[in-house]
Amino acid sequence: MVKAVVGACWGDEGKGKITDMLAADADIVIRFQGGANAGHTIVNEYGKFALHLLPSGSFNSNVTNMIGNGVALDIPQLIHEIEDVVSKGVPRPNIVVSERAQVLLPYHRLFDQYEEERLSDRQFGSTKSGIAPFFSDKFSKIGFQVWELFEEDRLMEKIKNVLEVKNLMLEHIYHKPLIDHDELYKTCREYGEMIKPYVIDSVQYIHNAIKEGKTILLEGQLGSLKDPDFGIYPMTTSSSTLAGYGAVGAGVPPYEIKEIITVVKAYSSAVGAGAFVSEIFGDEADELRRRGGDGGEYGATTGRPRRMGWFDCVASRYGCRVQGTTAVAFTVLDVLGYLDEIPVCIGYDVDGEVTRDFPTTGKLEKAKPVYKVLPGWKTDIRGIKKYEDLPENCRNYIEFIEKELEVPIKIVSNGPAREDIIMR
Ligand code: GDP
């Protein structure tokens, strides 16, 4: 049985918390895309953790956590995160890494930074974790799969070929120091030694796990609107954020993915540049940002203040649809308890025409939000365990949004901790 936990919008919906919670009943948790460029914040009995590459099942000793072939594998970062959770009292997590995962190298970060510098005021707002240069190299077929780190002669030769073009770019486009062949070779060999204990044939491993009836969770990073095909291209990430890609990035048969749990946040937030129709500004935004998430809406990787907005039915319905959602986990609802009235974006006005369908980026940039204002509930709902015990206006908010999403909200999250959950 394979389930995917993915995001509906721009990311930071609380996927980490939902995966950590669902991991209690899982055997394997797999990261299938992205890299260390975004973070999941998890609060549990061991404390508060910002994970970037470690799968969110890392706190459950019954779980094997896999870095799938679709991930940008930053080896020192992964080792650092493992040692960090262990140093904070978490039992050493069971980690395996696909031999087909590709390796993020130091120059990917540099190229990310240099390109943003070159773009200057047109930059993408990259986290500079090297993700875009990494995936460009992967699809230009000049990336390095993990197994290549162990084949010395081949590695030597390949580095020579790759550096030919990299150094031309460094010299003529970016005017930066060149990369030394022997130094890069040494780095690759060191990376190889670091990762060796974790490396497996993931195709075989997953095949056996499915045959044995294991429960597998696929953990997505970011959300639908950052998907390079269906998101707000080009202000997207560089690997697919969709559950469908989970089949590729983890190596599971597509028909085995039986449940797609899309995490949807009770209001909107976004990091990085790009269209954000229901964005709010000024004091209204500052207050929501300050009260949002667990201790404020600031990026888990960069610490940057997140852009804030009201709930967007158009974007979220579309986000759920492209994921193929079977159930929604509706999160961070407790944060809205301070508001008298809560605006919800129900349509986009594009050149005087109102639409409920999420448009392509050109039109999206012109869209103005059409709001419906719902009454607030003005109470703290943390600690409530049963759906019926939620205030009426709060249930009305959930049910209004459920109708707009056109998929059932089966999980409601009313606080950052594992146990702050209401099952419907
Ligand atoms: P992810 O990348 O989707 O896992 O999301 P992040 O971890 O970046 O952001 C979610 C933030 O909201 C984290 O700080 C979580 O601890 C917090 N969080 C998750 N669910 C809830 C919730 O129901 N209520 C509150 N107040 N915070 C939550």
Could you characterize the architecture of this molecule?
This protein has 424 residues and is α/β, with parallel strands linked by helices. It has twelve helices and 21 strands. The protein has helices at 15-22, 75-87, 106-119, 131-139, 152-174, 181-195, 202-211, 243-250, 282-291, 313-323, 361-364, 392-405; strands at residues 2-7, 28-31, 40-44, 47-51, 64-67, 72-73, 94-98, 102-103, 199-200, 216-219, 257-265, 268-270, 279-280, 307-309, 311-312, 327-331, 341-350, 353-355, 368-375, 409-413, 421-423. It has a ten-stranded mixed β-sheet with strand order 9-7-5-2-10-1-11-16-20-21, with helices on both faces. β17 (341-350) and β18 form a beta hairpin. The mean pLDDT is 95. Guanosine-5'-diphosphate binds next to α1 and β3. The active site is at residues 12, 40. One of its GO terms (cellular component) is cytoplasm. Homodimer. It is an enzyme of class 6 (ligase).
Provide a brief overview of the structure:
The protein is of the alpha/beta class and 424 residues long. It is 33% helix and 22% strand. Helix 3 crosses helix 4 and helix 5 crosses helix 6.
